[in-house]
Amino acid sequence: MPVKASPSKAVCLLSGGLDSSTCLALAKRQGFACYALTFDYGQRHRVELKAAHHVAEALGVEDHLVVRVGVNAFGGSALTDDIDVPKGREIAEMEKSIPVTYVPARNTIFLSYALAWAEVLGSADIFIGVNALDYSGYPDCRPEYIQAYEHMANLATRAGVEGATRLKIHTPLMDLTKAGIVKLAQTLAVPFGLTHSCYDPTPEGLPCGECDACLLRAKGFQEAGIADR
Amino acid sequence: MPVKASPSKAVCLLSGGLDSSTCLALAKRQGFACYALTFDYGQRHRVELKAAHHVAEALGVEDHLVVRVGVNAFGGSALTDDIDVPKGREIAEMEKSIPVTYVPARNTIFLSYALAWAEVLGSADIFIGVNALDYSGYPDCRPEYIQAYEHMANLATRAGVEGATRLKIHTPLMDLTKAGIVKLAQTLAVPFGLTHSCYDPTPEGLPCGECDACLLRAKGFQEAGIADR
After folding, report:
1. What tens digit of pLDDT does each residue of A199-210 get?
2. Least CB–CB distance from A105: residue in B140, B157, B161
3. pTM, whole model, 2 decimals?
4. Tell me, what CATH number does B94's domain have?
5. Is residue B90 part of a domain?
6. Which range marks the domain in which residue A76 is found?
7. Does the ipTM exceed 0.85?
8. Which of A187, A202, B181, B225 has the greatest number of CB atoms lying within 10 Å of its CB?
9. B78 to chain A: which residues are within 8 Å by CB?
10. What residues in A contact B144, CB-CB < 8 Å?
11. Are B104 and A167 in contact (CB under 8 A)?
12. CB A104 to CB B113 under 8 A?
């Protein structure tokens, strides 16, 4: 992949999970100067925020912002409210319907903050690690959603009016399986041990091993034939 | 306008200004059960938040939420940063370019929170008081932007996937002049005295009379032949 002489800036959404960490590593590899953006939305899995900090540091970013957003003011998700995170589900079952871990309009809110930061930085590139396969049933991870968001974003901003640069939302993991993401992460030297995927960790911050995120991660590593450190 | 027997819920963005207050009054008149949503984004004109509270109370809403959003973390606007708010500009001059009072991606962020709340409430209707005429040059107030947002929003949510109800973003003020808005507000008995428009009020919360928002408001009342209380 070409490395640009004077690097363009990219805003990279970083949850601290495997997917967003891989996405950030790829943006770096593509030669972007990366600005990592993490959200504190009252998630029950607070250890995620710590993971994001360590990953951003390990991969080397220009800046890392943690923005507090009031998503949980509205309620409605097992990730923010006192609703049980489902355990031990089959992958096929996950794909059938939108799970209770869905946070209403989450990616829409996150991308909107990324858009604001990109505009202030003068960046025309946003990276988000969404994935349409093994995607756990979230509507805002689908390619048609991302395309619609990009179109809207280009009408929302100064650049859209003044016609400076066309903003692009990069979704390099969109068509990869979880195993494909694990393999890509390995070639990019993503520090697996620093990433965090579990929705419902133990008080010590260890993964539960039974939520959708843990099961998908385990399946990915197993199928990739790589050990999860 | 028809009043529904069992009212549908609508999320109404409410800044406390004349436009959003009129928009809320119109949603009420159309028979919606209104949920007002106000943002504390570190705006210098803090008196706006107080105005929103009084307007919501006077017009009668089901609920009024003030959500703190970290827009100002990114900087880049005279409404949040230590940049002078321009004074005494001609209307023609306002229309020529995007002003320094533009807050990056503001309406995109605000609508995204409205979308999240609408989804939790089971509402398919969002009201926003944007206006394409006399609009002070903001890209995210144009009809093509709103259309693109609505399309994206319908792909972002449970409703979009499960095909339950199509979400609509209502912009009843889009094609009105400021004078037209003032006249509409009067027929709806909007409490003018409770609303607040100024970007740069005095320490006592009085309007400066010289910023774009004050000048547009004054022009609207003058052309409508109505006194601004």
Report:
1. 888 888 888 888
2. B157
3. 0.85
4. 3.40.50.620
5. yes
6. 9-224
7. no
8. B181
9. none
10. 155
11. no
12. no
